Amino acid sequence: IALDARVRISRPGQTGSSRLAILPYPRELEETIEFHGRNVIVRPIRPEDEMAHGDFLRGLKSEDVRFRFFGLVREFPHSELARYTQIDYDREMAFIATATGATGLPETLGVVRAVIGPDRLGAEFAIVIRSDLKGKGLGYRLLARMIAYCRDRGLEQMVGETLPNNYDMVMLAQSLGFEHRLRSEDNV
After folding, report:
1. 43-64 per-position pLDDT tens digit
2. Which residues contact 68 (CB under 8 A, 6 or more apart)?
3. 104 or 146: whose pLDDT is higher?
4. I need a labelling partner for 85 at 20 to 30 A (CA). Which of 26, 30, 108, 155 fits?
5. Model confidence over 58-110: pLDDT tens digits?
6. Model confidence at 18: pLDDT above 60
7. What pLDDT is attached to residue 33?
8. C-beta neighbour count of 132 within 10 angstroms
9. pTM for the full model?
10. Would you say 186 and 168 are in contact if contact means Cβ atoms under 8 Å apart?
C-alpha cells in the first residue's frame, strides 16, 4: 500500500535560476552611466516599459522607423509592444537606456535587442536610438554592452541586417568589429 508518492525531476548540478523554465528579471545587468551630463540607466527591458517604449517608437523620425523595421510602420499596437517588452531572458535580451525626462517620468533613449538562435551559437541584433540623440555615442555604448553580454553567454556570432543606405548603422557596426557584406537578393 502506497499512501504518498513524489517525483522530482531536475538535471544534476543545476542551481539558482538556471533550473527555472522562465528566467527572472536579471537585475544584476542594470547599470548607471553618464551620458552628456545625464545619469542614464542601462538595463534589461521589463513588461512595465510598454507605455514608455511605445512613446519612444512613436517619437522616432520616419526614416529611423524605416531603417529599424525595414518599412514605414505607423502604429505599434499593444500586442506588438507586449512582444517587445515581455521577453524570455534566456532566449532574448533587450537593453534599454532610460533617463528622467522633462516631465519627471522615465523616458526611453535607445534600445538594443538580440535574439539568440535555436542552436545557441549566435544571435541577431537590432538597435535604434532616439532620433535627436543619434551620432552622440549612445548607440556605440548600447551595442558594445550587447556584444559583451552575448560573449558572456558563450555566443560565437552576432548578425545584424540593415538597409544599404543606413550608413550610420554600417559605420557603427564596423567600428565595433563587424564585417560588412551586401546580400543583394534581399537588398540588405
Report:
1. 999 999 999 999 999 999 988 8
2. 60, 126, 127, 128
3. 146
4. 155
5. 999 988 888 888 787 878 889 999 999 999 999 999 999 999 988 888 999 99
6. no
7. 96
8. 11
9. 0.85
10. no
Query: First CA to last CA across the chain, in angstroms?
Result: 68
Do 160 and 171 touch, CB atoms closer than 8 A?
no
C-alpha dihedral, 128 to 77 to 88 to 175, nearest 10°: -10
Helices (H), 78-119: 78-85
Q: Please give the Cα distance from 127 to 134 (Å, whole number).
A: 11
> And the C-alpha cell for 63?
526614416
Q: What are phi and psi of 15, to 5 degrees?
A: -140, 165
Tally of residues, the chain: 188
**Which residues make beta-bridge pairs with 107?**
99
User: ∠ CA(142), CA(147), CA(149), 5° rounding?
Assistant: 95
Helix (H) or strand (E) holding 134: none
Distance of CA 154 to the CA centre of its chain: 17
Answer yes or no: are the C-beta atoms of 46 and 85 closer than 8 Å. Answer: yes
d(C-alpha 186, C-alpha 14), whole Å: 43
